[in-house]
Amino acid sequence: MDNALLVNYEYCFGCHSCEVACKKSHNLPLGEWGIKVQETTPQKLENGRWMWDFVPYITEKCDFCADRVKEGKKPSCVQHCLAFCIEYGTIEEMVKRLGEVKGKCEILIPR
Amino acid sequence: MDIDLSKPYVSGTQDDYVVRSCAWSPPGDHPVGCGVKLHVKDGMLIDVEGDEAHPISQGRLCVRCLDLPEYVHNPQRIIYPMRRVGERGENKWERITWDEAIDEIYEKTKALQEKYGKQTVVVFAGTGREATLYYCPLAFAVFGTPNACFAMSGFACYGPRRSIAYYLFGTGYPEVDFAGYFADRYDHPGYEVPKYIICWGKQPLYSNPDGFPGFSIIDMMKRGSKIISIDPQVTWLAAHSEYHVQLRPGTDAALALAMLNIIINEDLYDHDFVENWCYGFEDLRERVQEYTPERVANICWIDEQLIYDVTYAYAKNHPSAIQWGLAFDQTSTGGQAGQAVLSLMAITGNLDVPGGQTLGPRTVFLGKWRFDTAQYLDEGMFDQVRIGQKYPGFLNAMSTAQPDELLKTLETDEPYPLRMGFFQSSNFLTATCNVAPQRWYKALQKLEFNVVTDLFMTPTAVALADIFLPLASHAEHVGVVTPHFGRNLHFMGAMNKALQVGECKSDIEVCITLGKRFNPDAWPWDTAEEFFDEQLKLAFPFGLDKLQHDITYSPDLTYKKYETGGLRSDGKPGFETTTGKCELKSTIYPLFGEDPLPFYKEPHYSPYSQPELAEEYPLILTTGGRKLTSFHSEHRQLETLREIDMYPVVSINTETAAAHGIQDGDWVCIENMFGHAIEKARVTPLIPERIVHASHGWWYPEQEGAEPNLFGNWKSNINTLLPNSCVSALGFGSIHKDMICKIYRVDSLDEFGPTGGLFEEGRWLYPEYGEEHLNG
Questions:
Q1: CA B286 to CA B274: how far, in whole Å?
Q2: What's the burial of B338, exposed, middle or buried (CB within 10 Å: 0-12/13-18/19+)?
Q3: Mean of the pLDDT values across residues B108-126?
């Protein structure tokens, strides 16, 4: 059964907790990430508001924290995100959540 | 050390165990007390995870706690007492024992106090760290000096805001109601989220200010709260707000007065609350007439309509709440802005109601003990000898010396010489809690004997320490976390000890160790556990064992305490002020030479107040925005966090950068008549063309520590651009957020070498633009 992360990046404010939590739980060296936060180029919209977001992506290093999940824990990025804007589950579950969650969303699958 | 496996917060075996605890400091943060699970294996902290059972943080953690093992076991950390060998500044040390260190401190202190008087000792402390609870008792009950000092000009961090609230409302700090008091949080019966939250001069998401957990803003947004951001920059929160007021730095008081103008003139205020619980409303009504939205829009560089929009959003949607931030402490009329914002909270009926502003219970944990330690001072010391007599409004509200006056005393020996410094956990020569650090550096050379307590050899320690005492991190000591430093305690947490590193001690253990030698009557406790157990039992119906067992304590909250007597010491309804009401017009300010009503004045340095200077320095400089990867000057040693934020950053508008030939990533010098600093350019449309924002707190542990380089302390030291004594009539405030500057591209961080002419005679005094000018 394939799994995925759902990121409700409407609320991602760039705290980097997912990056560091992932690095620590996977013992990754400097320069390597399992999940990383990207910043979009700020754009001013016609109504005067700014479109500017932080958007995480995952790399081949991501194994959805298989060891932690076996112990009944959440993946480390999901647990530690200060905005609680990352969810974990099967692809089907995440697609279902996509319809329920408000705001900007992405589903991440490392393949 | 052996861990006590019978304790309820420990699980595992002697060689491999997990301790549940609440985080505070060091390494610093404000007292947020996030729940942590500290995993120790073979005596080493190997992993830190969030504690899902913690009512506030609920399993979340920021990068500083996640990276704690790299801090605790850092090869640069100092874990034994050290004595300086060679000259100050050479960064040469020898290891000594605690007994040797205490003996030497005792003998040298006594000799200096015999020669110059007890008041010759100053105990310095920094901001936010746990040491803030102990520096006054350390000064009063160990050394017998009235001079404890937070060296920040005008105590410009929290102290001004809490003093304003105390003078005008007689309460602790009014905080946004984020259901923090309740164990069941947002589901608590009767609680509702604020309809609008105004984040004003504050970035709670990145600063967790005063123990308010910043991520709660996101929790409330998900539950329907809308945000109004008042900030010169487009922050992430501003970009995700309903309204963003991009005001000119330092004009907050004008904006708040215009909002009051609209609310009063359009009859949008809470008549019942104003009639029954406010004093001075008619005088306030008269005062705000001069602050028309049209005039204020020009002052603030914003659209007039926006002032109406945000005022209506706040005043017509009940309940709503305001987060008032550091900009209220660090701008020219920030104190007046705070006064006006408190009036906004009061007359809209948002005080002490669900989803409005919480007012904490009167009991302040540890507060009585801290104040009572002044009894160990000789007669008259606290009231008449403490430095800062020029500012009775400051001395009346604070237990410390007034810092701007203390700097002058260091320089002039008036009214008496200061000759010993005890630096409790503060690296204030770096651009943290100071202004004019180059001036402090020179003045501090007069001190004949200095003790520094810290975890790393900082620029301050290298420059000044004769004895260095090693501090324990929050994973290594017993303690109690008190959000808002007790002045609006939404919860309390146990800091449980997980491991011992070297011979490090906590702040309170250092106090007890010194106290036993200097003044044993005042320090009867043998351990930190005994101390906290006794202190808890004085304020609560339980002791340390129960708090450690439960990890957290939620005090619950009753609203509208002004109706039930919960805000006054005599138990009567009302507020603890002279008039018994919320004082929109202060009855006490005139005693201190301050206007009883809020007002706006141009910043000390602005294009309008200093037009000639502004020709050379045309940009407005604002500083101090926070990152999650550091706490002020801390965490610079940690590679994992430096990988995210490698260098200090100056944010420059795209057009402004182009006009200066500056590209993103270039090194840029920020300069004015007082000093300069070199930082990396972040070229962005998110900041207005006439404003730049510069990072603070930067030094480079990877560089040479010995003088003159001092870990690069003077290369990116943005506080060298800020002068002393830009304070209010009360003696509060600074201008970290409303200064002027120019910028230009340079080739490298080392463009000017280690000190770059910052110590040229008289540079930081600039008589024609210095204090004399301001006082005139």
A1: 15
A2: buried
A3: 97
The CATH code for residues B175-358+572-592 is 3.40.228.10
Q: Is the peptide bond before B26 cis (omega within 30 degrees of 0)?
A: yes
> B207 contacts in A (CB within 8 Å)?
none
Do B175-358+572-592 and B611-775 share a fold?
A: no
pLDDT tens by residue, B385-414: 999 999 999 999 999 999 999 999 999 999
Tell me B385's DSSP state.
I
Chain A nearest C-alpha distance from B359 (Å): 26
CA atoms of B691 and B741, how far apart (whole Å): 9
Q: Select the residue of B61, B69, B684 nearest A80 (Cβ to Cβ).
A: B61
| B309 in A contact zone (CB under 8 Å) | no
Question: Residue B120 gets which letter from DSSP?
Answer: G
Nearest to B236 among A13, A16, A44 (CB): A13
User: Which amino acid is residue B678, in one-letter code?
Assistant: I
Give per-residue pLDDT as tens, B712-737. 999 999 999 999 999 999 999 999 99
pLDDT computed for residue B634 by the predictor: 97
Q: DSSP string spanning B342-384?
A: HHHHHHTT-BTSTTSEE---S--TTHHHHHHGGGGSPTTIIII
Q: How far is B47 from chain A (nearest CA, A)?
A: 8
Domain count, chain A: 1
Does the distance separating the beta carbons of B628 and A52 come in below 8 Å? no
- What would the pLDDT profile of B596-650 be if each residue is shown by its tens digit? 999 999 999 999 999 999 999 999 999 999 999 999 999 999 999 999 999 999 9
Q: Which of A88-102, B49-63, B95-109, B349-363 has the lowest mean pLDDT?
A: B349-363
B167 Cβ contact list (under 8 Å, min separation 6):
B397, B577, B583, B586, B588, B589
Q: Are A90 and A37 in contact (CB under 8 A)?
A: no
Indicate whether this complex's ipTM tops 0.90. yes
Q: CA torsion, points A15, A19, A20, A26, in degrees to nearest 10?
A: 160
Closest to B198 (Cα-Cα) out of B242, B160, B167, B234: B242
* Closest approach of A37 to chain B, Cα-based (Å): 10
Given a contact cutoff of 8 angstroms between Cβ atoms, the answer to whether B329 and B154 are in contact is yes
pTM of the model: 0.97
Give the CA angle between residues B423, B424, B429 to the nearest 5°: 45
| Nearest by CB: B62 against A10, A82, A85 | A82
Residue type, B724: N
Q: Would you say B456 and B65 are in contact if contact means Cβ atoms under 8 Å apart?
A: no
| Domain spanning B82-156+363-553: CATH 1.10.530.10 | no
What share of chain B has pLDDT > 90, as a percent?
94
- Look-up: residue for tokens 């008496």? B416
Tell me the pairing of strands B357-358 and B321-324: unpaired
Pick the CATH number of B611-775 from 3.40.50.1820, 3.20.20.70, 2.30.180.10, 2.40.40.20: 2.40.40.20
Predicted local confidence at residue B776, as pLDDT: 33
Mapping DSSP to helix (H, G, I), strand (E, B) and coil, where does residue B765 land?
A: coil
B178–chain A nearest CA distance, Å: 15
The DSSP H or E segment spanning B139 is none
Rg value, chain B, Cα: 25
pLDDT per residue over A15-52, tens digit each?
999 999 999 999 999 999 999 999 999 999 998 899 99
For an interface test with B, the pick among A7, A10, A13 (most B C-beta atoms closer than 10 Å) comes out as A13
**Among A19, A54, A82, beta carbon nearest to B215:** A82
Question: DSSP labels for B145-205?
Answer: -S-EEE-SGGG-SSHHHHHHHHHHHSSS--EE--STT-TTGGGSTT----SEEEEES--HH
